[in-house]
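To assess whether the prediction recovers the assembly geometry, we first specified each molecular entity separately, as shown.
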Amino acid sequence: MNKTFNFKRFGKYFRYDLVSAWQNAGVSILTIAAMPVWFYVIAQLISVVFKGHFADFSTGGILAAYMVSFILVFLFFPVQHYGRITDKKAGSDWVLIPASRFEKFFSMLLVTCVALPVAWLGVIASCDGLMTLLLSNYDGMGLVAVMDGLKGAMTEIHTDNVSLAFNAPSLLYLEWCGNILLFTLGAIFFRRNKIVYTFLSIFAIGLAATLAIGLVFGGNIEIQPQDISEDRIMRLFNMGLYLFYIVSFALLDLGLYFRIKTLKH
Amino acid sequence: MVKIDKISFSYGNTPCLEKISFNLEEGKIYGLLGENGVGKTTLLTLLCGLKKVQSGSIDVDGCNPYKRDPEFLASQFYLPDEVTPVNASAESFAREKGRFWPDFSLDRFKDIMVIFEMDLAQKMNAMSAGQLKKTWISFALACSTKYLYLDEPTNGLDIPSKAQFRKALMTFTREDSTIVISTHQVKDLENIIDPIIILDKRDVLLNASVEEITSRLYFDYGTTLNPDSLYTEQVPGGFIQVYPNASGADSKLNVEVLFNTVHKNKELIKGIFSHE
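The predicted structure of the complete assembly is given in tokenized form:
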């Protein structure tokens, strides 16, 4: 049997990881993904108390609920589900589960970057659909409206000289993956105050990167959009963006794998 | 077979184990004894691959435990002193987790839970510490692994549960299993553990079967003091004394007294047991 990867064994582990994710963080994720419901309830309570009547709940409110939900998922899921592995009791148990380090790492990627966004979007879409059906003052088709809004607002950026087009949903997904992997690394790297230390690390790395860029280029970067073609800006923009994601994911994946590999209790 | 060869481990600048060597054979239930801080738990965590030895080597059937190869992990189970609660019923926990161990049997798990008088439907995160420990012990035994490492298994168990644990251990372990039980509660396991390993920071003071121990040391439960006694303990109605068994007479081993004897006469005991 292959020591690094075996489909049957991985299947068992992935299933176990999913079941554990549900046991450890299922209720929290349901609560967070149902954020539009909580926002709606709070908005109605405030309206009834201060205005004396129910208020319409617009796409803006829905968008705010989605944003809060989006942020809370990647802040709390990694800590609740994977954060336990730095704990002596739960971590010893996790380390000794008969699956390879790579299988544990790969399952972590699939859970955080595939299963979790699918589940989150499923709950959000269900809440949105139900609220649209049941509530007359809820701006119907909220999720579709938001996706349309994103598509309309973000796929093209117009300036005086250039017009950039890019794939907003895929960027949103890459943003999800980047954030969830970053906070998962924080959750399995730090033994306590995982979220705070992750934020501090991001701040420190950001500061160091800014200083390094400043030192290298000495503040002499000048871009004259009128001097280069629209196509070239497009290509540079996309290349820079995807290069940033590729390098970030590679570093985060290496960090996660290395941490799993060297975890001791 | 487990071969431990001159292993050392320290926590920062504090040495824990220094050049410890011994072997563990198949089909035996080893009792691992030692004072607080000599490294019993550390040794178990090194054996199962939770920690990496800093020097020396551990060889378990040709595997280095720290590599954590899946097949190796499936051949062992380590039960720590403190176990973790799971947000699931005992039965669904065992069903899900048991898939990883090829010889795991859910029926065996249920049978052991019956011995412990435990409710299979009870949520593990609603259990008391003792109930949780019994569920994990049941799971560990149901995995039927070749190597089983138990760290203070009777800690937190009530009096009937200790007897139930002994019964479960004797009934549900494989003939060829190597079981290592680290414990301070020697009376709980006195009639089960054989051989006995007494660990010191820098040495293995004793690694011998009960038969070997009683052939070399005599445990005298009498009323008169023996001048050759290596250790004497006053008990109601007399003394328990230990002295070299020059005549080869039979006596009943008292593990607690043995431990104190070894602790007080480290070099002498090593001398008695080193020659064949």
